[in-house]
Amino acid sequence: MLNVAVMGYGVVGSGVCEVIRTNRKSLSEKLGDQVKVKYVLDIKEVAPDDPEASQIIRDFDILLNDPEISVVAEVMGGATFAYDYTKKLLMAGKHVVTSNKELVATKGTELLQIAKEKNVNYLFEASVGGGIPIIRPLYSCLAANEINRITGILNGTTNYILTKMFREGSDFETALREAQEKGYAERNPSADVDGIDACRKIAILASLVFGKEVDCAKVKTVGITNITSSDVAYAEKMNSVIKLIGQAELKNQTVYVSVEPRIIPKGTPLASIDDVFNGIMVNGNAIGEVVFYGPGAGKLPTASAVVADIIDCLRNDHNREYFWTQAASDFVADSADNFGKYLLVTKCADEVAQKLNITDRVFVTDGEWGLVTDVITERELDTVSAYIEKYIKLC
Amino acid sequence: MLNVAVMGYGVVGSGVCEVIRTNRKSLSEKLGDQVKVKYVLDIKEVAPDDPEASQIIRDFDILLNDPEISVVAEVMGGATFAYDYTKKLLMAGKHVVTSNKELVATKGTELLQIAKEKNVNYLFEASVGGGIPIIRPLYSCLAANEINRITGILNGTTNYILTKMFREGSDFETALREAQEKGYAERNPSADVDGIDACRKIAILASLVFGKEVDCAKVKTVGITNITSSDVAYAEKMNSVIKLIGQAELKNQTVYVSVEPRIIPKGTPLASIDDVFNGIMVNGNAIGEVVFYGPGAGKLPTASAVVADIIDCLRNDHNREYFWTQAASDFVADSADNFGKYLLVTKCADEVAQKLNITDRVFVTDGEWGLVTDVITERELDTVSAYIEKYIKLC
Questions:
Q1: CA A108, CA A207: separation in Å to the nearest integer?
Q2: Residues of chain B neighbouring A131 (CB-CB closer than 8 A)
Q3: What pLDDT band is residue A316 in, cutting at 50, 70 and 90?
Q4: Which run of H or E residues covers position A86?
Q5: Looking at residues A81-94, what average pLDDT do you find?
Q6: A390 is catalytic
Q7: Could A300 and B288 be called an inter-chain contact, meaning their C-beta atoms sit closer than 8 Å?
Q8: What's the rounded mean pLDDT across residues B7-28?
Q9: pLDDT(A321) > 90
C-alpha cells in the first residue's frame, strides 16, 4: 500500500481524492501497488457520508510523524501555514507536491534548496497552467534547448472576461459579473483581474527555466480592469485580439518580465486560446516554438497535475533537481527597460511622430489616431506620455 | 566527461551533434559534467572540415564494446540494421534513444522488453511529433488520467499540402510538387501522402497509452492522394477544413484506430494547425482535453527531442518503465467497426436517407448532395456504397 496525505480539502484537495479513487485500478497497474489517501488535513467539518470522512484529521503532527507517509499534497493555498507545514515535511524527508503558486513564487527558492539537501522532491506541476503539462516538459523534454522566451495566457478568469468582451461586445464590468456568476471569478476578483495570479505563474516559469529567482515584486504587472470597449475596437481594426500575457525573455543574462494586456494578431497560436483555457508558448534555440494548450484551472484538471506529481514521487524516490538560486539584484530588468512595439492612441499624432519612430498609422477617428511604434523601451514610451491617451503593447 | 554515440549522420544525426555542440555550456550546467559525442557511426564520406570528422567510425563494434559509451542515439532509420544494432546495444546494457518511428512501431514491444530486463532505457520522444514533447507528458504528466482518446495531425508533409490546397486553391499534384521543391516531401512521397508515417505514429502513441501493442497492419490507413478541389469546396461549405488525422480511442477494452482525411470545423484546436506543424490532442478522464503544438519534423526540433532523451538517460540511469505488451488479436477493432459521422456525397439522396439516419443536408449542386450522417459504423456505411460518390469522415 502506497500511503499519501492531502493537506487542504477544498476544490483541488477533493479533486485529488476523487482522481485517486476513480482511477484506483489504473494507478495500481502503473505503480505496481495500491495508492491510498491515508489522511486529509482540514479544519472544516466534513459531511459523515463524504468519501474521505474517515481520513480527515486536524492535527498536522499526525501526518508529519507517520513514517508510512512519504508523499504529501499541499493544496491549502496561502503562504503562512502552507509554508510552515511544507518546510517541516521536507525537513522530515517527505516529498511535497503542490498547486500553491503563491508559495512556490514567494518561497520556492528556499523550499527547493531544502528538498535538494534532503534528497526529496518539491514538485509544482499544478501551480502553472492547471492541468496542462508545462513544468515537467520545460525541465525534461526541452532540456536540450536554451530557452529564450516564454509567453503565456496564464489566467483563465481574465481570458474568459476578455473573450466575452470580444465575442459579445460586453464591457469589463458585465463580463466580470458573468464570470463571477459562472464561478470562474472570485467575489473579490483582484488576484485575477489585477494580474497577480499571472505574475506568480510567469515568475515560477522564468525562475525554473533561467535557473535564478524572478521576484514577483520586480515584475511589471498590469491587469485588465482598464480595458474598454474602445480598446476592443482598436484591436479589431488591427485584425487582432487582446489577451493578458505573461512573458519572460532572456537577453544578455538579463530577464525582461511583464504581465500586461497585449494586442495579438488573429491567426497566431495564442490568439485563438479563448474562454477559461490557458496556453503557453515556449521558444528554444533548437525546438523553435512549441505551444501547450488546455484547461488552466478547475478541480479535476488541477488535481490531474497534482496526482501526476504524486505518481512521479512514488515511482522514483530521488530528487528531481528542479532548482533555482537567488539572483543578483539586476537579474530582472528594470521595467523601464522592457521593450516592444506599442499601439499609441493619441490626438497629437505629429508630436508623437516627432519623438518616436512610428511604423504604422492603423486608424483615425474624430482626430484620434492609432499609431504603431517601432520597437522601443518603456523609457522611450514615457517621453510621449503627455501626448497619448492610452497605450497597449503588441505581442 | 559524459560520452555518447550517434548512429547515422543524416539530417537528424547532424542535428543531434549540432545541438550538443551549440548548447555545450548549458548542458554542462544541467548535467554537472560535459557531454561529448565520442563516435558518429556512418558509412558515408564526411568532409574533412566537418565538425564531427574525427568522430566518424564505420565499425559498429567499436561503440558496442566501448565501456565509456552508456547512451547511444539511433537516428539511422529503417528497421534492419537499426533493429540489429539497437538490440545488441540494449543487451549490452546501454541506453538507446531514437527518432526511428518505423522501428519503434514494428519492434518496440520486443525492444522495450529487453530494455526492461537490462534496466536500461529505450526512449523515443523524437519518433512522434518531432520536437513536440508528447511521449514523456503522456507517460508522466498525464499519468493520473485514464486516457480515452488521442487525436493528432502527425505528419507535416501532408499538413503542408492540405494547407496549400485550402489557402491557395492548389490541387493535390501542384501542392505536392511545391512541398517537394521546399524539401518538405521526399522524391518518393508515399510514406507521407499515403498515411504510412502517420499510422506508425498513432500506433506508437496508442501502444504507449493503452499499454498494449497496436499493430500498424491493423490500422485503417487512408492517405490524402484522393483529396480533390471539390472536397476542399465541400469542407468550406461546412466552414471546415480537411486534415489527415490519426486517432486512437479506447472503448470497452477495444481500441479503434484510424488514419484518414477528416473534416474539422474551423475554430476547433486542430483546425488551425497549418503548414508543416503538428498538433496532438489528448483526452483524459481528469484533465479533459490538452493540446500539444509545434514543429513536427525538421533537423533541430527533432534533434532537440533526441538530445532531451540523451539527457534523461544521463541524469538518471534506471529504466523509465515505458512499456507495452503483446495484445490479444481482437484488441484493435476491425475497421468495419470504426464509427463516426460522415459527409456523404451522393446523387441518390433519397436512397441513402432510406438506409441511414441523415442529420443534415449541407449542400446540393447540380443534383449532387452533401449529406451528414448520424454516428454510424463503417459496416453501415458500406450498405450505401453503391449510392455514394465519396465519403469523408468528420472529426
A1: 9
A2: 286-288, 290
A3: confident
A4: helix A81-91
A5: 98
A6: no
A7: yes
A8: 96
A9: no
* Cell triple for A368: 484620434
Query: Which residue, chain included where needed, has cell 525534461?
Result: A140
End-to-end Cα distance, chain A: 50
**Which chain B residues touch A310 with a CB distance below 8 Å?**
144
Report CB contact under 8 Å: B291, A293.
yes
Taking one residue from A and the other from B, the number of pairs with CB-CB distance under 8 angstroms is 171
All three cell numbers of B394: 468528420
Instruction: Give me A385's grid cell.
Output: 506620455
- For B160-192, write each residue's pLDDT tens digit: 999 999 999 999 999 999 999 999 999 999 999
Continuous segment of H or E residues that includes residue B109: helix B101-118
Q: If you ran DSSP here, which 8-state letter would residue B127 be given?
A: G
Residues in chain A closer than 8 A to B250 (CB atoms): none
Average pLDDT across chain A, whole number: 96
Q: What is the pLDDT of residue A23?
A: 96
The Cα B66–Cα A77 span in angstroms is 52
Query: Is pLDDT at B317 greater than 80 in this prediction?
Result: no
Q: Compute the average pLDDT of residues B14-42.
A: 96
Domains of chain A: 2-131+300-315 (3.40.50.720), 135-296+329-335 (3.30.360.10), 336-394 (3.30.70)
CA distances to A159, A245, A255, A312 from A248, rounded to whole Å, are 19, 10, 6, 28
By the 8 A CB rule, do A307 and A354 touch? no
For residue A359, CA distances in Å to A239, A336, A348, B52, B229 come to: 17, 21, 16, 45, 39
